[in-house]
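Class, look over these structure tokens:
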Amino acid sequence: MKKLEFSANFKKDYIAYSAIVIFFLIIFFEISMAIVIPAHLQIEGVWAKEVARQEMVNEFDAVRNAFLRQKFKHEYAGDEAKIIADSMTPLAEYLRKHQYDIGFKEIEEIKKTISGTRTFLSGLHSKGAYSTDAHIKTENFIKNLKKELAKTNNAN
């Protein structure tokens, strides 16, 4: 048998060149996807953190401004709102200074705190002040004090 009967005649034509080009294109795209997809996911993670951070700062500012600007029915409610807003000032300064150093866990904790503070604000609107005036009945105390004073004066 002749060797030519068992071998294929491989012609170097445009179909063969196309197959080789397509093969290398597939390899190139697979390698590029292996590089691009993780980089894209990392960028998406950075943007997700940035969006969460910006939402946290905006919510914090909105709640703090609500405590400072809103009018309340009860005068003590306004005073309590001012105390809370004043206590939020150091946190506002911290957020401005270190907002880019805060991680997802801290962002979620601050958002929970903001939510609780917002609940407290709505309670100030609906229920009024949480503090009340303490009314002390001094009549009994004064009577007892007078009795003790009379006893000490009589003993002398």
